[in-house]
Write a structure and sequence with these properties.
Chain A: This is CoA transferase family III. Chain A: GO terms for molecular function: transferase activity. Chain A: Keywords: Transferase. The complex is a heterodimer of chains A (451) and B (103). Chain A has helices at residues 11-22, 37-43, 64-78, 95-100, 137-141, 149-157, 161-170, 215-225, 247-254, 267-279, 289-293, 299-305, 330-336, 339-347, 358-375, 386-395, 402-414, 440-446, and strands spanning 114-119, 122-127, 174-177, 190-193, 206-209, 229-235, 258-262, 282-285, 310-315, 380-385. Chain A is of the alpha/beta class and 451 residues long. In chain A, α8 crosses α15. Chain B has 103 residues and is mainly β. In chain B, β5 and β6 (38-39) form a beta hairpin. Chain B has a domain at 4-74. Chain B is 0% helix and 39% strand. Classes of the chains: A alpha/beta (451), B mainly beta (103).
Chain lengths: 451, 103
């Protein structure tokens, strides 16, 4: 290796400093070991997950792995000494693929549910993650069609991009256009409502995690490593769908969290939900805002009423109308943030980058926002959107034109040799995760609720 | 009540409130579709009417509504007052979609 770190080798440190600065934190920026962003992506398996299945692993010219390293390092500066010993942020981007055995598939997401499809005037990413999504396709295309990808591909090719995206969003499908990243990156976190500071913050915060799948549970998992007490709350009718996937991954995200399950369909269950929220210091939630409002939960009002509350709202596209209604998952959010467009720009064809990349990146950023908010005596309602996190990372020190992106892709390729490109790896879970509702009685007793 | 053909992707709006729906699936033939006691209007048609005092129903945005055998399914694209009625029978909210196991 060259003796002197280059400017690129310090990108992660600068990103960490920028994250802390955007939170108005007067703490010294972490000193990350110099590591080129391309080497970070190659070492963690992100590059191995990017490109055609029968072609070489491709470089993404956005510093995704470096940003993950930076977000975890920034969180570590606020966490107890040694909380993240032996863990690099970039390794969190690929461990699901390692457990599931996912590999790169070009214009098909590694998980297989999301595809890049050509319309008459542009490309879209369509993610049919729920079996039930297939039943909405006749309404999307205004006719009956076979429930398979060849039929969907043909149907999409006859439509305009705008129509597929608009109508798909209206139907609650995760669909995104292949678009360039914005010229001005958005903030990665927005304070929607400020908290009144808590005069006596708890020494160890209680986290109530209402989320499922990956981004939110990863956020809770990281807060747990910071020393928080995390309760995972699920609906009896709809437990976390990730429970039906490989246990090794679910355990990795959720081991050590106490699991409460409630019947959100009953008035009693909704009262218990409200009571748990009233006793939490940090709430992690990844629903569209209207879903909680329909359960009688108003995050804005709760934050205004409760001193010291930090409420993390993870969404696809933020909480403002009309985007608050749009569904996104990790793969299509990456496309909406500009990644597939960039890959087409520098490699000639669009493809996915990594496995549901927006999920772990958003989870990392959300954990930083949550912990910083709690430490400050209450962060208020903090909105972290999957797409804005991707746009923020892509836009950090970004080239300003196509030539610049090409040059960066060439420069980054030059630091790599074939031995640097490693497959994804996963940690082992410390224990099995609890089943839904295993800990209802204990949590109700500890948090001072009647059963 | 007037009868109308329902096709996947077709849009209807309430004549008496803000409610709007999109057809997800429907049985063949012509059927009666009402909201708040009045025929729903296709596409951009304009209508006027008032909600009967005894209809306390509400159509919730994002929810899917089905008949008993689920041969009809509507998605609410805009919330509003009134009960959805298909061929004389009120529609029920379909149970929420199961979460994906991964994405």
């Amino acid at each position: 290796m060259s003796a002197r770190p280059t400017d690129d080798d310090r990108l992660a440190s600068r990103y960490a400093a920028a994250l802390l600065q955007s939170l108005d934190l007067a703490v010294p920026a972490p000193a990350l070991a110099p590591l080129h962003p391309a080497l970070a992506a190659a070492a963690c398996g992100l590059q191995a997950l990017t490109g055609e299945s029968d072609g070489p692993a491709l470089i993404c010219p956005a510093p995704l792995a470096a940003a993950a390293d930076a977000a975890l390092a920034a969180l570590a500066t606020l966490a107890p000494e040694g909380a993240f010993e032996g863990l690099a942020g970039r390794d969190l981007l690929t461990e699901r693929a390692a457990v599931f055995g996912h590999a790169r598939r070009g214009a098909v997401s590694p998980g297989g549910s999301c595809r890049l499809l050509a319309t008459g005037d542009g490309a879209v990413a369509l993610n049919l993650a729920r079996d039930d999504d297939w039943s909405l396709l006749p309404a999307l295309f205004e006719r009956d069609l076979d429930a398979d990808w060849p039929a969907v591909t043909r149907a999409v090719s006859g439509l305009r991009m705008h129509d597929v995206v608009e109508r798909g969003r209206e139907l609650g499908l995760a669909v995104a256009p292949v678009v360039p990243p914005p010229s001005q990156p958005p903030p990665w976190v927005r304070t929607v409502a400020s908290a009144r500071p808590d005069p006596r913050p708890a020494p160890r915060p209680r986290v109530l995690d209402l989320s499922s799948l990956w981004a939110g549970p990863l956020c809770g998992h990281l807060l747990q490593r910071c020393g928080a007490e995390v309760v995972k709350l699920e609906g009896l009718q709809r437990p976390d769908g990730a429970r039906r996937g490989p246990a090794a991954f679910f355990d990795l995200m959720n081991a050590g969290k106490r699991c409460v399950a409630l019947d959100f369909g009953s008035p009693g269950g909704r009262r218990q939900l409200a009571a748990l929220i009233a006793r939490a210091d940090i709430v992690i939630e990844a629903s569209r805002p209207r879903a909680l409002r329909q359960l009688g939960i108003d995050a804005e009002a709760l934050v205004r009423e409760r001193p010291g509350l930090t409420w993390i709202s993870l969404t696809g596209y933020g909480r403002e109308a009309p985007a608050a209604q749009w569904v996104a998952y990790g793969d299509d959010a990456g496309v909406a943030g500009g990644l597939a467009y960039l890959m087409r720009q520098v490699h000639g064809h669009a493809c996915f980058v990594g496995d549901a990349i927006a999920d772990p990146l958003a989870g990392l950023h959300a954990a930083l926002a949550a912990w910083a908010g709690w430490r400050a005596g209450g962060g208020g309602l903090l909105s972290v959107s999957l797409v804005d996190v991707i746009r923020h990372v892509v836009g950090f020190e970004a080239p300003t034109n196509a030539d610049g992106w090409h040059r960066r892709a060439r420069d980054w390729a030059a630091v790599l040799t074939s031995v640097n490109v490693r497959p994804p790896q996963a940690r082992s879970a410390s224990a099995r995760a609890a089943a839904p509702g295993d800990d209802n009685a204990h949590v109700f007793a500890d948090w001072g609720l009647a059963c | 009540m007037a009868k109308t053909a329902l096709k996947p992707g077709g849009r209807f709006k309430s004549a008496v409130s803000d409610a709007q729906v999109m057809v997800v699936k429907a049985p063949a033939g012509e059927h009666e579709l009402g909201c708040g006691g009045t025929d729903m209007l296709a596409g951009n048609a304009e209508g006027s009417g008032s909600l009967p005092a005894d209809d306390t129903g509400e159509v919730l945005i994002g929810k899917r509504y089905v008949n008993a055998d689920e041969s009809l399914e509507l998605l609410c694209t805009k919330g509003g007052k009134g009960t959805l009625v298909f061929n004389g029978t009120p529609l029920e909210i379909k149970q929420a979609k199961q979460l994906p196991s991964s994405d």
